[in-house]
Each structure stands twice: as C-alpha cells, then as structure tokens.
Amino acid sequence: MAEQGSVRSVREVLAGRAEAEVTVQGWLRSARHGKGVSFLDLYDGSSFDGLQVVVDPDLENHAEVAALGTGAAVRVHGEVVDSPGQNQPLELRAKTVTVVGGVDSDYPLQKKRHSFEFLRTIGHLRLRTNTFGAIVRVRNAASQAVHAFFQERGFLQVHAPIITASDAEGAGDMFRVSALDPEKPPRAADGTVDWSRDFFGKPAFLTVSGQLEAEIAALALSNVYTFGPTFRAENSNTARHLAEFWMIEPEMAFCDLTGNIDLAEAFLKHVFAAVLESCPDDMEFFAKRIDETVIDTLRHVIDSPFERITYSEAIEILERADAEFEFPVKWGVNLQSEHERYLAEQHVRRPVVVTDYPADIKAFYMYLNDDEKTVRAMDVLVPRIGEIVGGSQREDRLDVLTRRIGEHGLSPEDYWWYLDLRRYGSTPHSGFGVGFERVVQFMTGMANIRDVIPFPRVPGAAEF
Ligand code: 4AD
Ligand code: MG
Predict the structure, then answer these.
(1) Residue among 357, 443, 345, 431 nearest 394 (CA)
(2) What is the whole-number distance in angstroms between the Cα of residue 379 and the centre of ligand 1?
(3) For the chain, which has fewer Cβ within 10 Å, the N-terminal or C-terminal residue?
(4) Which residue from 417, 355, 360 is spatially nearest to 390, judged by alpha carbons?
C-alpha cells in the first residue's frame, strides 16, 4: 500500500487542498487511450466529479495502463497541475499507476446511460454510477442535517427497538420475527401454532414505527426523536412505498397539534436548505439530468409558509376540482395519492398540511376532537410525492384511548403499558413520522423510491 499519509481524496485534490504531489486511489469511470497518452477518469466517491489522470507513454507500465478499462481499481501517484482541458481546472500527471484490481471485460457498467430498471438488477455495482453516488452523498448530508436540527433544539435521540410485540399503527401489516422451525412449530391443543414457545414467549414482529416507544421517552425526557429502520409488510408495489424504510420520529411532551406542525415545517426546511448548501454539485446534477425544477422547488419551499387546511376543507376543494380522479371523493374517504398531489401541485403549488381527518381512517392513538368525528391528525403533502409527513397530537385521556383501542378492534391488554402512561403523569403530547426516502425523493426529483435507497426492499425483491 502507498504511504497512507500522502493519500488524498479526489475531493481534496479538486478543491486545491492537497499537496503538489499526491496519491489518489479509486475506480476508473472511463479510460481513453489515445496515441501514447491515456486519460483516466478516476472516481473515489468523495465528490461528484472524478479526477482526470494523464498518463504519458514513458511510464514504466504504460502498456498495462493502456489496457485498463472502466471499473478497474487503481492507485496513482503524481503531480497536480492546471488542466489545459475545458472540463476541469486541475488534473493529475501520473508518475506511477498501480493496478490494484483489474476488471473483467464483461463489466456491466459502461460509460453510457443505463436505465434505472437495469441498474436495480446490479445493486452491487450501481453505487459506482453518477446518480447513485449523488444519492448516497445526499442521503449522508440529509442524515447529518436531521441530527443537527434536533440537537440544536435540545431533542434527545432515542433508539427505539426494531423487534417488537406491539403493532404501533394497529394496521396489522407486520413482518413476523420467529425462531421456530417453520416445518414443525410447537402446536397448542387446538392445532394452532403455540407462539408462547417461540423465542420471545409471544408473537414478535419487525416494528412499523418507533412512535409508541418515543412516547414513553417523551413522557420522561420531554423532547426526543428516533431515526431508524421501519418495516411494512403491505403489498404496495408503488413508486413511493418500500417494505423497509428509514423513519425520523420526533415526539414532544406538552405540545399540541399546532406546535407539531410548526416543528414539521421547520424540520423539512432545515433539511432541504442544508442539503442545497452541502451538496451543490450533486444537486446540480439532479437538476440537469433528473428534474430541472428540483432546486427552484426546494428554494420556493424553503422561502414560503406551508399552507394549512382541514381535511373537510380539502374534501370541498377536491369536490370542486376540475380534475378526473380515479377514486371518487366524499367526506370520510382516505385521501389517495392523486388527491394529495392535486392539493399540493394544483391547488397550493407548495407543501400543504391537512389536519383533522375523520377518526375512522386514522390510527387509534390520535386525539379525538370534541366533534367525536375527527382526530388531531396532520399530514404534510408535497408536490410529486404526496404524503411526506404523518403525525398527530396523541390521545392522552385514559378513558377515550381505551375506548378507541376497542373501536379499532384491538385489545387494551396488548397496550397495557401505553395506557399506563395515561395514568401516570399524562400530558398533551404530539409527534410525527417522516419517511427519509420520501424526503430524498422529493429533494432529488427521482421518480422511484427504489432508486433513493442503496438496497431497496420491496415485494418480491431482497437481493444484495
Ligand atoms: O403515516 P405513517 O404510517 O405514520 C406513522 O408511522 C406514525 N407512527 C408516525 C408518528 O406519528 N410518529 O408514516 C410516516 C411517514 C409517512 O408520511 C411517509 O413519509 C413514510 O413514513 N412512509 C413510508 N415511506 C416509504 N415506504 C413506506 N411503505 C412508507 N410508509 C410510510
Ligand atoms: Mg400516514
């Protein structure tokens, strides 16, 4: 290996922050071999741009270098010089080129545009492409921004469990976690599987949300947030659903629905602004190649207040709308993606927060309004994506919550500790969940959520 001290990232070299003579290492995004001189585009993931490496014919192993193709791993030692070319300010004049890992001739990534469908079939290589490098860097910056936002406000990060026995959404679409032998599970007298003899002594699942545990923490520590993987076993084959996605869930004690919406608005604006600031090259790429409106849209969102309307107002707007909906609209129905997008794209042309949904279409834990028909729910809807945030003020009255759990066909015994919180120092409290991938999708303009997470998990696909 080269002396690590002198190894620099491409990012440092391009920014002029490296020595006059440096070592860089990475993979070739392309190799052009002209008469004598070779031009290598060396990429190490540290920045959107690669580093142009110029290799003269008098190099000792020039023949070996002249045979290098896209995808090879190399280490180059050389001199950083001003580039005579148009495309880059600096380039590296190679003094030595070490071939660290050659590449077979059937390397599937060539210097041409591949479809995202094709790239999904080579998940082990697609992170080397422009688009997926940019996605990983934007995700990284957004993740940093999430923590910075909450830390600046004194929120404590709480690690919610991934394996759980409770259904946080009461919707039943959970993946089972079991250590039983599926061929011969222990059975009760009536022939059903005896889950009490499973690993946890009861049925267990992958969590759909860390909310219930976040509530426990908020009612002890005031302001908290989780940021972890969550799982949904719903069979939704859409461009905005994953079976495994990352969710950020703040929870605040002594906070009502309005405070909750204010936080969600400030949160999204903070993350968008931070990514625009820290990933300008990647964002420029998304604007150039994926969706030309993406940067302007983010700036517009950062600069304008979110519209706030009630569900009932939303239904009136949709009933009056001059649009053909596949799913008919009337008070009481769940808003479909086409309705959410109409509201955000056509009606207000920026994010809109819809509140006070019918109790029957929302989860059991939401605070019941005095009308007994609606709950203090809020969804943030954005153009192109629809729902990006879902949250609520929580039901903190023991009697109402017990009743609501029953009305949802759930059993209060399963939620005994959740109900306990309403007996021991209960306070109004609120929180929301924001899907990290939907945020990244919105920021980058990527059409399919499978292309904003390195390793998507969707029905029928868990390769890589
Ligand atoms: O609206 P959801 O289901 O709300 C909850 O899980 C609450 N427990 C959150 C809370 O109040 N703490 O999910 C929240 C957000 C959605 O708005 C969406 O952005 C994202 O999570 N989401 C998904 N993202 C990708 N794939 C899926 N299948 C998703 N389901 C929800
Ligand atoms: Mg929701």
Answers:
(1) 431
(2) 10
(3) N
(4) 355
The runs of H, that is alpha helices, within 67-123 are 116-120
CA 270 to mean position of chain CA atoms:
15
Q: Which one of the ligands is nearest to 434 CA?
A: 1
Q: Which atom of ligand 1 is nearest to the CA of 211?
A: 12
Give the chain's length. Answer: 464
Q: In angstroms, what is the C-alpha Rg of the chain?
A: 26
The token pair at 432 is 């929301």
**Alpha carbon distance 433, 251 (integer Å):** 9
Residues with CB under 5 A from ligand 2 (ion): 390
CB 91 within 8 A of CB 14: no
Mutate to test the pocket of ligand 1, among 174, 209, 236 (most ligand atoms within 8 A of CB): 209
435 CA to centre of ligand 1 in angstroms: 6
pTM for the predicted model, two decimal places: 0.96
Largest CA distance in the chain: 85
Q: What is the pLDDT of residues 37-78, one digit of tens each?
A: 999 999 999 999 999 999 999 999 999 999 999 999 999 999
Tokens at 237, concatenated: 């084959």
- Choose one of 139, 213, 245 to mutate for the ligand 1 pocket test, by most ligand atoms within 8 angstroms of C-beta: 245
Looking at the CA of residue 380, tell me the nearest atom of ligand 1: 17
End-to-end CA distance of the chain: 29
Pairing of strands 156-157, 21-33: unpaired
Three-state secondary structure of 20-31: CEEEEEEEEEEE
**Which residue CA neighbors atom 9 of ligand 1 most closely?**
433
